[in-house]
Amino acid sequence: MAEVVVISAGSSAAMVGGSAAGSVACPDSDVVSPINLGDLDLTTDEFILDEVDLHIQANLEDDLVKEALKMGVDLRQYSKQVEGELQRIEQASIKDYIKESQNIASLHNQITACDSILERMEGMLSGFQSDLSSISSEIQTLQQQSVSMNMRLKNRQAVRSQLSQLVDELVVPKTMILVILESPVTEQEFLEQLHELNKKINFAKELSFRETLACSDIQDNVDRLKIKAVTKIREFIVQKIYSFRKPMTNYQIPQNTLLKYRFFYQFLLANERTVAKELRDEYVDTMSKIYYSYFKSYSGRLLKVQYEDVADKDDLMGVEDTPPVLHSSSGFFSKPSLKSRNTIFTLGQRGAVLSPAELEGPILVPHTAQRGDNRYPYETLFRSQHYALLDNGCREYLFLSDFFMVAGNSALDLFNSIMGKTLGMFLKNMSTYLSDCYDSIAVFLCIHVILRFKAITAKRNIPALDKYWEAVLELLWPRFELILEMNIQSIRSTDPQKLGVLDTRPHYVYKLICTYTLIEMQYNLDMLDMCLFVEVENFVLKMAAEFPSRKDQLIFLINNYDMMLSVLMERATDDSKEVEGFQQLLMARTQEFIEEILSSPFGGMIAFVKESEALMERGQLDKLKNDEVRITQLVRGFSSTWKQSVESLSQDVMRSFTNFKNGTSIIQGALTQLIQYYHGFHKVLNQPTFRSLTVRSELINLHHLMVEVKKHKPNF
After folding, report:
1. pLDDT tens digit sequence for 500-526
2. Around Cβ 43, how many Cβ atoms within 10 Å?
3. pTM score, two decimals?
């Protein structure tokens, strides 16, 4: 398409081809039709040239115009030339327009068609927009309806679940009826249906408080099933309780059976308290009689296997030994004062009753012991009886707490209603026995048995027997203190000369004190009165004074002190006051005894050494210058007899002391002291006063003497 050229307003040239401005040449002829250019027509008179001067001024400032003016070009001629070119270009442009007129018209038609299409599309989109707006509102409406329907569904489901649960709880199934009516109570399905029945009974009670009408429809059936279940359960439990009464019955078996069906009693307690109370009272009455009968029989049979010889009121530490006395009136001999002092006042194997293996060992079977002709001390029977009580009492308390569902004071009251009569019998029998008991070791051990059993029940967390243990201790302690006081008084008032044959071995009185001390230390107790120790110590000194020789007195004291120290060393520490005190006593008496046994064979030499050493300290050794004969006798006498004397001394010491270890220590001390004395004898004879004596050559070499003495050292 040709370009459209705007013609200058000042130009008056005509269009190419002689046509006037605004004409269009038709393609088929030379005639140019006029064209309406509208605002583009520069030839109209309506065009106002208000700004012509401004344009002229601007054109003059144009670089091209300035260059033309500078070169002297005629502007008029140049203007005409330009106008001619413009006209040619205009004519060419017009021809191009005319040539493309059909295309332009077609383009116009196409644009018009596009406008109509776009208009229709706009209408369609507007319709779509309005449709989408309506759809959005419909979706919101549907969403609201969905939320509402979902809420109604949830409400209906909640109501349905509650109604379903209500119906399930109210309906009594046929299976439950058949099982409750026909199945034995020991069947597992009966127990399961009983649980379900209990739930329905509780649910019916709950609904009755809410005045639910549906409850009345099932109440009659539930009540009938409850009555039937209560009847069957009562018969079952009563049968088990009556089975306890059969002779030789192990009542622990039916107890375990009842524990297996403990829910039966729970069901009765919740639904029929009168029947539950009846069964509990029946059980309490039955078991109370069983325990009383069992322990009464067992205690009586135990006494038949007790030692026949027991301590009586005359069997005290300080009681004098007297021969049997013939009574003129009756013709019978009176009983000796003591059957066996060592048995009565010595612990021996009796302390084994407190060992863990014996304390919680099997109880004694009396008829077995009778067949074997076995006899036991009282504390062993006491341990067996009370261990049976502890074992049965703990088991019974746990059964009551579990089956009858009681705890605290209620459990204790129920336990006492069963075991109270039996415990009262025990206390009565013990009080009777203690009133005539003078066996201090038996009472002493019984106290410790109770203390240990008390600790066991505390460890098992069984408080049922706590009051009984305290009651037993209240009986045992005063009796033990009374027996101790009687022994103290007997020791204080006794005459050692009337206690029979004197013996250098440990005295039975001291053995008893050792027994008490051993038990006291073994179980960390502090219960012996120091007054007893003081009186026994005084008694031992008085007994020692009865021996005619100082040697026998020292042997007696050393044996007793050594026995006590051995007991103390088993449990006490080496730096304790008791151990230190007895060590000092034993050391002092031992040193004195060594001097005593050396004085007989070597007394002359020892006296000479002591005398010489005293004179040497004062510088007066010359006073013994004339004792050549005495010195000669001492040197030759020692050389000829020392071996026999040492051998005799060793044998005598080992025969005198019950503790071989202590005897060995004394022999070693005596031989060491002998060597020291002989060394002193050498030292004295080496002084200038005695160097001229020819007998010095007969002295035994000190090293040789030590070697020979070691041969006499006993090996124990």
Report:
1. 567 777 766 666 666 666 555 554 545
2. 15
3. 0.60
